[in-house]
TrEMBL record:
One Pfam family hit: SBP_bac_3
Matches recorded under PANTHER family: AMINO ACID ABC TRANSPORTER PERMEASE, AMINO-ACID ABC TRANSPORTER-BINDING PROTEIN YHDW-RELATED
Signal peptide stretch: 1-22
Family: Belongs to the bacterial solute-binding protein 3 family.
CDD domains for this protein: PBP2_BztA
GO biological process: amino acid transport
Stated name of the protein: Amino acid ABC transporter substrate-binding protein
Solute-binding protein family 3/N-terminal domain sequence ranges: 33-262
């Protein structure tokens, strides 16, 4: 009996220490606002427009979660975070979810006690240089100065790549993409390295983007993911399946334009469950039956979001590539809604 009591006490203490008693859903509902950690400013992904309204690929995730949980996609407080402050902002409770081009790694997932609930963009690290430099390959950067954000996976990747190719470089440390852009354009570094998507977004914001080229080498795997705090499994489920709803919607042809029609007329059992017509999946995660329908209505399905913010018709000009649906040769794949 004594051992059982001690075990029970120890288990309760461990659960409390691990944050298993946290209830982020209740906190967000009581606050009436979702606190979403985003980039300090990366055009196409997360940046305020001329009127101060945040727009972008990552912003759409924040809006979808707010719509699912609070019934209103506008009920989001966007909290700008740098590469150095983003994980602290999440673990401290300053933000409820982090939707900010952050790579999943072993140490971040385990040592930092974060849960990366869904990969929303498959990426890789690249290099951008002025066209006037005359460089056509990253292997021609021996002795170059390279602008690099501190507190990111790109630091180790850069060191590994240059070491493996028996090259040397001089790092120019920066704290944010805005500083990196400034330093790079001022000539403080020969090259700028970060995720290839980030380079495309940065170049698109230049006055003369054609004066700069992104080199062909991709030197790492950078699966960018949405993160929550470790220990609140229900909140993790909500954010994870909200994102999956956007992916599934594209697969099943559900768009922001035909959402109501699909909800009322589709005979596809998966669509009926996704849009809350049958089974009431929302009840399993503490939401109502139409949580996913609202999430999709916020900014459209995954493909709509991609095309409107960073796709080939935008200044960012990113092809779907690995981020295409699994049915189209990509890696985007939503588990079944059943």
């Amino acid at each position: 009996m004594k051992l059982a009591i001690l075990f029970g006490t120890a288990t309760a203490a461990a659960l409390l220490a691990g944050g298993a008693m946290a209830d982020t859903l209740a906190d967000v509902k009581a606050r009436g606002m979702l606190n979403c950690g985003v980039n300090t400013g990366l055009v196409g992904f997360a940046a305020p427009d001329a009127n101060g309204n945040w727009q972008g690929f990552d912003i759409a995730v924040c809006k979808a979660v707010a719509a699912a949980v609070l019934g209103d996609a506008s009920k989001v407080k966007y909290v700008p975070t740098t590469g150095q402050t983003r994980f602290t902002a999440l673990s401290s409770g300053e933000v409820d979810v982090l939707a900010r081009n952050s790579t999943v790694t072993f140490s971040r997932d385990t040592d930092l006690k974060l849960d990366f609930v869904a990969i929303n963009y498959y990426d890789g690290q690249g290099f951008m240089v002025p066209k006037s430099l005359g460089v056509t390959s990253a292997k021609e950067l021996d002795g170059a100065t390279v602008c690099i954000q501190t507190g990111t996976t790109t630091e180790l990747n850069l060191a590994d790549y240059f070491r493996a190719n028996n090259m040397k470089y001089q790092p120019v440390n920066i704290d944010s993409n805005a500083e990196g852009e400034q330093q790079y354009l001022a000539g403080a570094c020969d090259a700028y390295t970060t995720d290839a998507s980030g380079l495309a977004a940065t170049r698109a914001a230049f006055a003369n983007p054609d004066d700069h080229i992104i080199l062909p080498e991709i030197i790492s795997k950078e699966p960018l993911a949405v993160a929550v705090r470790h220990g609140d499994n229900n909140w993790g489920d909500i954010v994870r399946w909200t994102f999956f709803a956007l992916v599934a919607a594209e697969e099943y042809g559900i768009t922001s334009a035909n959402l109501d029609e699909q909800a009322n007329t589709s005979q596809n059992p998966e669509v009926q469950r996704l849009l809350g017509k049958t089974d009431d999946l929302g009840k399993m995660i503490g939401l109502d039956a139409e949580w996913a329908k609202r999430a999709i209505a916020a900014s459209g399905n995954y493909g709509e979001i991609f095309n409107a913010t960073i796709g080939e018709a935008t200044p960012i000009k990113l092809a779907r590539g690995l981020n295409a649906q699994w049915t189209q040769g990509g890696l985007m794949y939503a588990p079944p809604f059943r």
